[in-house]
Specification:
Order of helices and strands of chain A: HHHHHHHHH
Number of helices of chain B: 9
CATH topology of the largest domain in chain B: Rossmann fold
Number of strands of chain A: 0
Largest sheet of chain A: none
Strand order of the largest sheet of chain B: 6-7-8-3-9-10
Radius of gyration of chain A: 22 Å
Number of helices of chain A: 9
Oligomer: heterodimer
Distance between the termini of chain B: 41 Å
Largest sheet of chain B: 6 strands, mixed
CATH superfamily of the largest domain in chain B: P-loop containing nucleotide triphosphate hydrolases
Largest interface: A-B, 13 and 20 residues
Strand content of chain A: under 5%
CATH class of the largest domain in chain B: Alpha Beta
Shape of chain B: globular
Helix content of chain B: 25-40%
Chain lengths: 264, 252
């Protein structure tokens, strides 16, 4: 009988952890559902949405653009080096455009925006929570979900596809710049090959990924900030959790979408 | 006569920790009740339960005789619209200028809202020169006044004041207390103030109640606070370290 006691303790611990994980998922799903339900009915705050689109989209352009240019260039260089081993260096434009549009543009764009925006959202909402500003909103005839969460979700879902479009274009441009100025590719031929291998499906999947990543970024930023507690340390934890969870969910969502769209 | 506000046996726990065990009191229309008690006794939790920001585990809360204990959605929004609240730290929105904070819940065009904000700021003794400043540019006392202006801007039926004088020097604290008393008297607003500042309690209250260990252990008119006959109240009012409250803390 005594032998079973450690086993029971282990099962209790595992069960507790599993319940805790499912409870967290349940809270997150409920939070998202509440925000979506609020989105379906007025009042809406278009000025708040535009303000958030500016914060998320316009102010993220430099970091997303630079990331795309540098990564596109590095990708072209690596494909050239790797392809040369198999006498396939000419695949640089085709592989670069597919790699950038299908994967690197949306994923790196999403991760960069997550680092910049999810942290800012969590910090702002977290500070509002611990200074009772969110409670104050409720006493001022304003639903905090409609005022704080819904505009951020809408703005992120609408803005990320535009950011990723820019990211894709700059990523391809980075590859073209490196290929033509350093690797000796003919500019016109490079661009013609790029256009030939760029399919509409690639662009559409890229934009779908971007919209999903936008939803994840805003959801994680708002969720962790909204439920922040414990003063400055709590806001710090919320910020970290928002970024880490957004990163993981973006990579997971990218894998799922890639498998669904391209495996067939 | 039906009280404006009635709490009966309200209890609230956070996890295994009971904060409110059995809170019961009435507030008549136009009356100013001050709830005194030490830090962590559940004063703020009481207010948040009444507002519906927290849901009590047990008990009943009534406003004008109607049960408001477990409201949701639109009913909760209508309930909240009857209240104004001055939060302990002001809870002003950092991203908005002073006038937009004050006029936050005021309907209408930007011009009419700004005019309403300036009028309300004047009622708490602030001029138009602060209207375009950010809350972070104001002193603690001015922030409290702006928060007070925001609380009264939409003419609520019931006003809550959460530690209105915390962090203020005695003179500024008296200015805030006088403003609150003036507002409550002139407009016959029902008010509930929670504080551990006895000067504030003496100035604002019509009646005083003491919250201790999750329950109201004494209540009476302001004039009776110095002859309550309750050793907990006497110790708290005198601000003595020795007494039953200290013993209770030591036991904990």
């Amino acid at each position: 009988m005594a032998v079973l006691i450690p086993l029971v303790h282990a099962l209790v611990a595992i069960g507790g952890a599993v319940i805790s994980v499912f409870a967290s998922i349940g809270r997150l799903v409920r939070f998202a559902a509440t925000a979506l339900v609020r989105l379906a009915t007025p009042p809406w705050y278009p000025a708040r949405i535009l303000e958030q689109m500016l914060v998320i989209g316009w102010f993220s352009l430099p970091v997303v653009g630079l990331t795309a240019i540098f990564t596109g260039s590095a990708l072209a260089q690596q494909i050239f080096i790797g392809g040369s081993r198999f006498n396939a260096a000419s695949t640089v434009p085709a592989v670069t455009v597919i790699g950038v549009v299908r994967e690197l543009g949306p994923v790196l764009g999403g991760l960069m925006v997550a680092g910049r925006v999810a942290s800012a959202m969590a910090a702002e909402l977290g500070t509002m929570r611990v200074t009772e500003q969110i409670d104050a909103l409720a006493t001022l005839r304003t639903d905090p979900f409609r005022w704080l969460v819904a505009p951020r979700l809408v703005a992120a879902v609408l803005t990320l596809p535009f950011l990723v479009l820019v990211s894709n274009a700059l990523g391809v441009m980075g590859g073209w710049l490196l290929a033509t100025f350093r690797l000796g590719f003919n500019s016109a031929a490079y661009l013609a090959t790029t256009a030939r291998y760029l399919h509409v499906d690639d662009v559409v999947s890229s934009l779908v990924k971007a919209a999903v990543f936008g939803f994840i970024i805003a959801l994680m930023g708002c969720y962790h900030g909204y439920h922040s507690s414990g003063g400055a340390a709590g806001v710090g934890r919320a910020t970290t959790n928002a970024v880490v969870s957004a990163f993981i969910l973006i990579l997971l969502a990218n894998l799922v979408i890639t498998v669904i769209v391209f495996a067939s | 006569m039906t009280p404006k506000l009635r709490l009966s046996g309200v209890a609230k726990s956070f996890g295994a920790k009971p904060v409110l065990r059995d809170v019961s009191f009435d507030v008549a229309a136009g009356e100013s009740l001050v709830i005194i008690g030490g830090s962590g006794t559940g004063k703020s939790v009481t207010l948040k339960c009444i507002l519906g920001l927290l849901r009590p585990d047990a008990g009943r809360i009534e406003v004008d005789g109607a049960d408001v204990t477990a409201l949701r959605g639109a009913a909760l929004a209508r309930h909240l619209a009857r209240f104004g609240m001055l939060f302990q730290g002001g809870a002003l929105f950092d991203s908005l200028p002073v006038w937009a904070n004050v006029a936050f819940a005021v309907p209408g065009s930007a011009r009419s809202r700004r005019a309403a904000a300036l009028e309300t700021l004047a009622r708490v003794g602030l001029g138009s020169e602060v209207a375009d400043l950010r809350p972070a540019e104001l002193s603690g006392g001015m922030q409290k006044r702006v928060a007070l202006a925001r609380a009264i801007a939409v003419a609520p039926e019931i006003l809550f004041f959460d530690e209105p004088t915390t962090g203020l020097d005695p003179i500024m604290a008296d200015v805030i207390n006088s403003l609150i008393r003036k507002l409550v008297t002139e407009q016959a607003i029902t008010a509930v103030t929670i504080t551990h500042d006895m000067a504030s309690a003496r100035k604002i209250a019509d009646r005083v109640a003491m919250l201790y260990d999750g329950a109201i252990i004494w209540h009476g008119p302001r004039e009776a606070i110095d002859r309550s006959g309750n050793p907990f109240v006497e110790q708290f009012v005198a601000g003595r370290a020795e007494g039953p409250i200290t013993m209770a803390v030591r036991r904990g």
